[in-house]
Amino acid sequence: FSPWPLNDDFQVNRDAKVRLFNRNLFQDSPHLFLFGEAAAYYDGGKRSWVGKDLIENELVTLPWMDFQLRLTNHEPRLMPRSAPRYARPIMEEGVVVANDQQALLVEVEGQQYWVTDMRPVTLLIRGRKVTIEVGKKALTLPFEFVLTKFHMDTNPGTTTAASFESFVRLFTSDGPEEHHIYMNNPLKFQNFTFYQASYSENADGSYSSTLSANVDQGRPFKYFGSLMVVVGSMWHYALNRKRHFRKTSKRNEEDDYSKSFTSQAHKTELSDFKVEYSQSDSSSGVKS
User: Fold this and answer.
1) pLDDT band (50, 70, 90) for residue 168
2) Which of 33, 142, 203, 225 has the smallest set of CB atoms within 10 Å of its CB?
3) SS3 sequence of 208-270
């Protein structure tokens, strides 16, 4: 139900000065209507509708728990509009706990509308009723499978689910196949992976199983990339080992060369000493 009147093409006329309400719909619970500088509400004690003028900065007492209303500012040329603003999602333990609303700005015949996942927009376009909503993309599976059995174990003494699992029959070109889906044991078929996510109880006492689907069209590329990482790590290890072996061999050669040079120098000093000693001995023999 829209309080806005419609024009000859059955489209909402937002420029109209008149809006239509059925007062009986708002008499069972407290409702407050604001019309510019006037307010209206249903007084259950008096069983009648009450209208009051709103004067800037003056209090108006309402019949609900002594609520009071004050008009602080009035803009006659403006109208309320739902315009979402971007906010970064807040996550805790991998779950979005705040700012999880999704919104989309669409333009239809020159008019812009905000569509959110909680608030779809219904328009009458060229005599046809069109609903625009934000949601997940629906995919038609290239195969079929049915739930044949659902099993759930509860914690001792409680009705809290400890584990739940699904038994499904998958129809393939080679014939039907039986599969068992439970925690850490998903069903993988044709780049689709189905995980056991949740369950629900039906009105007749039976259970329905909820599976979460993951579509991975690039799985071969992912495996190829993982293989390249492994090969690259092995290649990097081999290069580093070869470089380390070269440095160790060169260091050993330098140590061997240094030891050889020291030994040769020591022999040279000893030979010089012997020569000098023999010459001194011969000279002393001549003198004697």
Assistant:
1) very high
2) 203
3) EEEEEEEECCCHHHHHHHHHHHHHHHHHHHHHHHHHHHHHHHHHHHHHHHHHHHHHHHHHHHH
